[in-house]
Amino acid sequence: MNRLSAQNQLIIGIVIIVAVSLAGIFLAIKPQFERATRIDGEISQVESDIQAQRAIVARRLSAKAQAADAQVEMLRIANEVPEGPELPTVIVNLQDVANAAGLTFAQIAPGEPAPAVDATGKQLGYTKIPITVTVQGKWDDHIEYLRRIAKLERGVRITDASYTYVAPTDTKDAYVEGVIKLEVYTMSIVQPSVSTGGAQSSTPATPPAGATQSGQ
Question: What is the DSSP-derived secondary structure letter of residue 202?
């Protein structure tokens, strides 16, 4: 009985030592687990913040790109439909592309500006200016002229075009004469001028050799 009692005491002692050891280990490791859990939470928060910042940066970059695209588009529209008529520039451009196409720029006649209106007569907030151009040359060159007009930086709309074959004479070869009616537009409201003689036409001089040509 005494021997069994001693064995029991030994077993109890061992159990107590193991329990105390486990308790010590648990008490030592628990704070580390808690710290690791806290660190994991902080890492998740940092990652979430990083993703949020990346999303903000992406939105800012997208907005910046859209603003740049919008600015380019506004500049293109401003060139096509400027604030003022800028008719001298239009006339020079039309003459330059006629020369580049191989045509003789015979005459140009700007018409009276008028407010653009819709089908009901309501003003649209911009002005249209009619222009009539007379050019002479070969048929293929007339086609090239129309193609070059379409590529002008200034917005030019062709509203009508008629062509007449002119027979050859003793001093001049046969050619095709084209009368092209155009419209250009301006954002400002240009009131028609008071005139009894109508629009004045002009026959521009052929530019000197080597002059800069636009629309090529």
Answer: B
Backbone angles phi, psi at 108, to 5 degrees: -140, 140
Cβ atoms within 10 Å, residue 199: 13
What contacts 66, CB < 8 A, 6 or more positions away? none
CA 148 to CA 133: how far, in whole Å?
A: 14
Residues 75-104 have pLDDT tens digits of 655 566 667 778 888 999 999 999 999 999
Q: Residue 44 in 3-state DSSP?
A: helix
- Residue pLDDT, tens place only, 150-195: 888 888 889 999 999 999 999 989 999 999 999 988 877 666 554 4
Structure tokens that stand for 168 in this block: 């050859």
pTM greater than 0.70 (yes/no)? no
